[in-house]
């Protein structure tokens, strides 16, 4: 049942090229995006996205896509806050709920609140026969297949895939991408399964560095732009299964507090493809290194070259379009958590105190 893998988590990590490919083939056919016609982004003024845990971090990533590519304002909230704050929702607001299980109690309660207040309720779910799927006006499956490991991996990247396709569709409908530009973006997206395979093949390097991480008591994760939510996801995944205290920060926040934590014993993991913001990230890294911090840089070969001397460890990924980077960089984030947990000997698939689906508050 684990298909030759020791754990469901490693099986599910390895499945990502194929399930992301499935989601792509479902939503993009004959070069055209297939989404329900009732989902009309020309009529939407604001998107409110609500979820918990990793699904929330997928929403936070998608905010960058919807806002930067489709120029659509997005609010993102954790369901437990949203449901009790009972935020006013203005006309033209569509509420979007993301959930792997489709049964998370807080997300479902938030959906029920929004039903009376939003123009339309959309859900992005893995389990099609679930409450969050049934109670939405439009429900979009992520087609990840059954996810058993408590730590969500393929659920996250399939959520990202569907949300990115939605953002591209929105950008086209709202006149921010021409048909040609959209086709180019979709072509790039189709390279993702292949790129993910390359990232998966780098697992022995991740394993080697994870053995060193396993002795740390605190680890910081940094990222800028859409890599910021991924830094949060890397920290969440590591906490969940290795029980090492980890925190994710926007790189630019370093000076505003977390740099006080940096010392020789605190590894700092930086997700930084060589994009437009790379220079800024390098200077953040230098600030860490100047204080004796050990930087694990996850980048592409151009980034590794630019980073220069003094970096503790580097993991190299293929070069990738900016918008697609969160999908690709998710793989080493998951592998680090997995191999660090293995090195510590914790129960990877059934971490202490956690349930796969949080159906009670
Ligand atoms: O089933 P859901 O996507 O609604 O679950 C949300 C969170 O409980 C879930 O993502 C949790 O954070 C995972 N254990 C993360 O790995």
Automatic annotation (TrEMBL):
- Record's signal peptide: none
Tell me which residues make up the SIS domain: 37-177, 209-351
For whether the record's keyword set contains Repeat, the answer is yes
Q: Which GO terms describe its molecular function?
A: carbohydrate derivative binding; glutamine-fructose-6-phosphate transaminase (isomerizing) activity
* Reaction(s) catalysed by this chain's protein: D-fructose 6-phosphate + L-glutamine = D-glucosamine 6-phosphate + L-glutamate
Cellular component, GO annotation? cytosol
Q: Which stretches are transmembrane? A: none
**Which residues constitute the catalytic centre?**
356 (for fru-6p isomerization activity)
Q: Which GO terms describe its biological process?
A: amino sugar biosynthetic process; carbohydrate metabolic process; fructose 6-phosphate metabolic process; protein N-linked glycosylation; UDP-N-acetylglucosamine metabolic process
What EC number(s) does its UniProt record assign?
Answer: 2.6.1.16
Q: Which UniProt keywords apply?
A: Aminotransferase, Cytoplasm, Glutamine amidotransferase, Repeat, Transferase
- Where does this protein reside within or beyond the cell? Cytoplasm
Query: Where on the tree of life does the source sit, at the highest rank?
Result: Bacteria
State whether it acts alone or in a complex, and with which partners, per the record.
Homodimer.
Function description? Catalyzes the first step in hexosamine metabolism, converting fructose-6P into glucosamine-6P using glutamine as a nitrogen source.
Q: What is this protein called?
A: Glutamine--fructose-6-phosphate aminotransferase [isomerizing]
Query: What is the protein's species of origin?
Result: Nereida ignava
Boundaries of the shown chain within the full protein: 244 to 604 of 604
